[in-house]
Amino acid sequence: MSRILTMSRAGREALDWEMERRDDIFCLGEDIYKFGGIFGTMDGFGAKYGPERVISTPISETGFIGMAAGAAMAGMHPVIDLAYIDFIGVCYNVLLNTASKTHYMSGGAVKVPMTLLIGTGGGYNNAAQHSQCLHATVAHIPGAKVVYPSNAHDAKGMLHTALRDENFVIFLTHKGTAGVGWMGTPIKTTLSEVPDEPYTVPFGQVKVYREGSDVTITGLGMSVHESLKAADELAKEGISAEVVDLRSLVPLDRDGIFASVAKTGRLVVTDEDYLSYGVSGEVIASVVERDPTILKKPPIRVTTPDIPIPFARPMEQSILPLAGRIADAARKQMA
Amino acid sequence: MSRILTMSRAGREALDWEMERRDDIFCLGEDIYKFGGIFGTMDGFGAKYGPERVISTPISETGFIGMAAGAAMAGMHPVIDLAYIDFIGVCYNVLLNTASKTHYMSGGAVKVPMTLLIGTGGGYNNAAQHSQCLHATVAHIPGAKVVYPSNAHDAKGMLHTALRDENFVIFLTHKGTAGVGWMGTPIKTTLSEVPDEPYTVPFGQVKVYREGSDVTITGLGMSVHESLKAADELAKEGISAEVVDLRSLVPLDRDGIFASVAKTGRLVVTDEDYLSYGVSGEVIASVVERDPTILKKPPIRVTTPDIPIPFARPMEQSILPLAGRIADAARKQMA
Amino acid sequence: MALTAELRRSFYEKMALSRAFDDAMIALYWEGKLPIFSFGAGPLPGELHCSNGAEPVGAGVCGALGPDDMLTADHRPHHVAVCRGVDLDRMSAELLGKKTGLSQGKGGHMHIYDPAVNFASSGIIAEGMAPAAGMALARRLQKRPGVALAFIGEGAANQGAFHETLNIVGVMKLPFIVVVQDNEWGVSTSKAESTAVERNSDRAAGYGMAGEFVATNDPDDIYLAAERAVARARNGEGGTILELKTARLAGHFMGDQQGYIPEQMKQADPIPLYRAKLIRDGVLSEAEADAMQSAATERMAKAMQFAKDSPYPDAAEAFDHVFAGGSGAFDQHKAEARA
Amino acid sequence: MALTAELRRSFYEKMALSRAFDDAMIALYWEGKLPIFSFGAGPLPGELHCSNGAEPVGAGVCGALGPDDMLTADHRPHHVAVCRGVDLDRMSAELLGKKTGLSQGKGGHMHIYDPAVNFASSGIIAEGMAPAAGMALARRLQKRPGVALAFIGEGAANQGAFHETLNIVGVMKLPFIVVVQDNEWGVSTSKAESTAVERNSDRAAGYGMAGEFVATNDPDDIYLAAERAVARARNGEGGTILELKTARLAGHFMGDQQGYIPEQMKQADPIPLYRAKLIRDGVLSEAEADAMQSAATERMAKAMQFAKDSPYPDAAEAFDHVFAGGSGAFDQHKAEARA
Ligand SMILES: Cc1ncc(C[n+]2csc(CCOP(=O)(O)OP(=O)(O)O)c2C)c(N)n1
Ligand SMILES: Cc1ncc(C[n+]2csc(CCOP(=O)(O)OP(=O)(O)O)c2C)c(N)n1
Ligand SMILES: [Mg+2]
Ligand SMILES: [Mg+2]
């Protein structure tokens, strides 16, 4: 059996299934006992699993995420809710130097299996400190896997995969895609038929959301859905866009990206993270370091520019990589 | 008059000159009063300027760098010594959300002029937590300028520029280039004729270290000097390499990079930072998003791979972007 | 300064004005957000953390300050800003994202900056601790007077920045006060669930500084404690942890149903209590109190009108103020991005 | 366990072995680094922070622990590791970057991991605080016994992680002990210059836990205080800040001239003092003490021989252990990078 679910409910189903069967999993985060986490991934878990396994923490991210790393070294698999990625600044050392490097620095003697759930992104006027993506900042860390589902099916399957991984997995979800009560009506393309049964979605494989022959549009998180919107527009104009969801930043499926661009010969890279030193440059470099001659046109990046996210709606809406800007870039590719 | 100086002494000269003339500058950092900072930039300043202006702090990076930001908002220009960039994990929020974004979030009402000195890099067996570059991680932050001199002349001129800038400037120096006592004999190419008089070197301009016609090799910090070594080797084989020092990551001189590659048609990008989601991808993307057809061959990246820095010499030496690997990449370009 | 009748009347006026500000913003907040709630909808989008119930903190502490003193506030800044005298029209315009706002629409309600009264706020928990201490250090280096205060919540007292900053303040004996606003909650987590000690003011001993605790959420008591702390700071006696029990009457943010708050933990509204007290003490008559109330409501109506009448910034302004004085290569990138 | 003669003899043996380890490493460290000093030169490259003078901490605290207990140490881990019983041969090999090292040459002296005795260390200040508390939490969830200890320096007590971790330990009443090794210095900065309170153990009141302070750098006194702390932890009475005055006789790291240390602050060597004490108390004869000393030196010579005779890892091994169990796409990247 399967039903249409939001990413939030689908993710919750995966975590619930694993927690019912495994004693090593427990949850840590601010307000999770009463609120079930920023995306409701732990909705109702307080009552179901009790305060020992669903621990609401003080506002001490270095403390509780560092504790999660220690618990992982001692045989547990903690699942942490960090709410917004804007908060990594107060706990970055745990990500950068402890959780990601201990397995390596110990020559494989110590494992750190833990899953860190983080919400990313803006578009709802929450300003410069509550709207960032920063996925490049965590994906640049060696020793951390970084995944980024954009729909309910992948949210469930990738969370099962993360919970069975022996490593530190950073599990990103764009706030606008999760389908939570405080972000308005869910985006249609984030909903999917989700089987009741558990299943895994492997890390490191792009997903071709929509096949096309003229231009490849890569995206991740929210920008996948803006790309799909743009593709609909473009279709009306007779432009066939292929929309590729990166889904996983570490490992990154360079073959999958290249295959699509080799087919279309044109590349538009979308990313809600800041332009420079991030995912957009990496995607382009991955393609051309293999073969620049497959490109019929210079690739175009449609990202948030290198500026803090402004509060006021007219400014924020203009700097996000929304469908309009993406479609324009694709048109340029075809011109 | 001018003399040959190390980067360490040249930088010290700039800071000393500005401090002698300006009351708004003061220094903060661990052990700077007695030790003069990781690169000796404040060598002897304790005695000369006293404990009020040369403040040795507790091991509380969020505390004293956050204080520097507040002092800057109140009209001072703090110069902070953070020693190793590996430590940004414990103070990253100050960089990411406070020092870099306050001017923007205040609509220009509040300025945050401060200069943060940080040492980067490995190559001396200091292992995974004391050898990182991570310059991409700070360069990805909007609102922070990030500069990276690789020789004494630029160290003095760019530090003058930083101290006169009204913004948050992250001033990076690769430990191996500074010419300090604990890193052995200084690298020749880091030394330069340095005028006694103060002068500024503008941010956002690449420096063509060595002209060449066959292949462009870009570098920053230490990888500039490894590239120069490689260029010497290549010259013997009749390969004329142009070595371009990025010097400044924010702003990045995309025109300067493109001009060199347009001339040579071949690109080798060197970087001691981790491969993915960093500077190397950005440099390649900056070139091809303008015109991929100028490339006669696929560009090649010579970087530290996406792995923590190993301790043992045979392993560390093999993963760093040293002259041998760089020369091989250039040869591939010519093949 | 003594706790004069005049001063106490001003406390009431400020509390009324702060409440008028929040009530007006709350009313506007729901426009466009019903029946389907969405942070991003309506004329006042984003998260909104209101100060209803915390007005005595703003009135009492700011009453003890002078023009040279410097303040940082957190994600719940309205009561401190209003009582500090931040420009009401421009603050209102900022919450609505207008060009006339204090930050020209770039900041919103968590990012209120008004250099004219040395006020700043930001949204990362405990983020204002160290910058405030740095402002105190700046004044010492500039040989200018001024005490710095960081306003935080009791939840923020468990963040590393609290510890690092207070230790440095203790070592340097800086003129610094951390105002710990204990409203019992950090979102849905109670102080007892989050804090290993009953009173954060008791942590002062660990930093070689003074601790003050006020249990009443009454601006008179708060003022007297703040005045002692400010006097110590001005006399070079160093810092104070000033912990003030207060209230959070409008939830963590708009949309918080507060179902997690048990009956016996419901909090009292300090404004009617203070009003009754002033009338009991003969400092205020019913008529005067009513007049102050309506003056506050009118003033806020004027501010809201200014905000509503103001234009939005142009989209392209998003590229301004990234760097002071601009930056050659960035301007170019900016131009490209604009194109 | 009582402070038996046997136990005290074992303290002396452990202290002698720890000292032998450091002295041997110091001797080797200078090979290849003279006349021109360079961190990266010689058979033992990198920074080296030795424990000379801190041996009583390792001996006394570890003497009070059982096999289930878990330890994290910092950038100065040797004395704790040796006294905890970390494999001496493989630890020596690790410092030399050999394939037979505990981390197969990937960690070096700041990154000593030996799961067989629940020992871990790392190089970022106060980094071990929270992970140790998390190990204590894991044992509680696993319903297994075990107290967790984080060994840090007095300088690390001013890092945010100290505060955040101790507050959570206090709230959860976890079986956790932070051993604050007060050797008076953080690099060149004295405790008085860096710390707003005289004793970090006094900060325990701010976390609802016990504080213990030992001023003597004597393993007997340290053992007794540690035993009290461990007993509290095992009885569910929560955490302890155990502050121990100790010594740093070999500088912050090799190359530190220590010109900043005034005569009157020179520190005594605890090993001869303890030896004299044990002889005074009739627990040890001169001959036995000498025998223990030479046994330690011989054991260390054997370990150093093992390390020197061991091969270096192959360069390509740098790509192993980035991820447990490997990772499809990463393996491919790894292969590319290897090529
Ligand atoms: C570092 C960080 N972690 C988490 C948050 C999310 N957050 C915003 S307000 C809040 C609760 C703060 O509680 P308190 O300090 O008591 O202030 P109050 O809301 O009660 O006024 C939290 C957890 C944040 N903004 N920053
Ligand atoms: C976060 C961080 N900041 C700075 C350093 C550099 N550092 C290494 S050891 C040290 C001094 C530590 O002093 P203490 O904690 O007293 O330990 P001790 O060296 O005295 O044993 C410093 C500042 C670091 N490793 N990590
Ligand atoms: Mg609160
Ligand atoms: Mg010390």
- Tell me the Rg of chain A in angstroms: 19 Å
Spatial ordering of strands, largest sheet of chain C: 2-1-3-4-8-7
Cα distance spanning the termini of chain C: 58 Å
Count of DSSP H/I helices of chain A: 13
How much beta of chain C, percentage-wise? Answer: 5-15%
Q: What structural class should be given to the helix and strand makeup of chain A?
A: alpha/beta
Kindly state the number of beta strands of chain C: 8
Number of helices, where a helix is a run of at least 4 consecutive DSSP H or I residues of chain C:
11
Bound molecules: thiamine diphosphate, magnesium ion
Biggest β-sheet description of chain C:
6 strands, parallel
Strand-pairing-aware structural class of chain C: alpha/beta
Largest sheet of chain A: 7 strands, mixed
Name the helix and strand elements of chain C from N-terminus to C-terminus, one letter apiece.
Answer: HHEHHEHEHEEEHEHEHHH
As a percent range, the share of helical residues of chain A equals: 25-40%
Strand content of chain A: 15-25%
- Chains forming the largest contact: A-B, 57 and 57 residues
Q: Separation of termini of chain A? A: 47 Å
Number of strands of chain A: 14
Mean pLDDT of chain A, nearest integer? 98
As residue ranges, the low-confidence spans of chain A are none
Uncertain regions spanning at least 5 consecutive residues of chain C? none
A few lines on this structure:
In chain A, about 35% of the residues lie in helices and about 20% in strands. By secondary structure, chain A is an alpha/beta fold.
